[in-house]
Amino acid sequence: MFGAHAATALALVDSYGAVAIFAVFALEGALVGKVLPARTLFVASVVAVGVEAVAVLPVFAAAVIGATVGQSVVFTGVRRFGVDPTSLAIVPIGADRLDGTTRWFDRWGLPAVAASNAVPGTRGWLAVPTANASSVSAPRFAAASLVGSAAYVGALLAVGIAVALGFGSVLDLLGPEWAVAL
């Protein structure tokens, strides 16, 4: 099942490029995309486009901006419309997790938003308590989200480049007949 989702996501990236990366990361940022393989898709995209800065920059920017937009949508939805994303079955966050993130935000403030966005598994979770329990403005929240997402995607970019360079080295070791076959 996961393989089919990954294959579909890679086909979308092959067809639509950075726009597909933006969409996947926006869904992940909006907490509904946790079922999509965003990390795997990003690393595979970096491997596919190569390690040149000109090729990787649009993929990097699409991921960071997409995650920030997704989280800002959740923040605005909670703040302005009283939406409770945790009540949706597609959002994998329970009330117990929100209590912990609320305490984290109460203690550290906006730096907690940036830090949580840089850590896999907690990305985007502070959007709900920040919107509910603080007077943080949407632009300040988006800025903190952007900083954390840039750190996270930067780490993924380093992994993607390492994989791309490693994959190239393996092909060099195997010889030109294997490179043609792959």
UniProtKB/TrEMBL annotation:
It comes from the Archaea. It is a multi-pass membrane protein. It is found in: Cell membrane. Keywords: Cell membrane, Membrane, Transmembrane, Transmembrane helix. One of its GO terms (cellular component) is plasma membrane. The keyword Transmembrane applies. The chain crosses the membrane at residues 41-70, 141-167. Its main location: membrane. This is DedA family protein. The lineage of its organism: Archaea, Methanobacteriati, Methanobacteriota, Stenosarchaea group, Halobacteria.
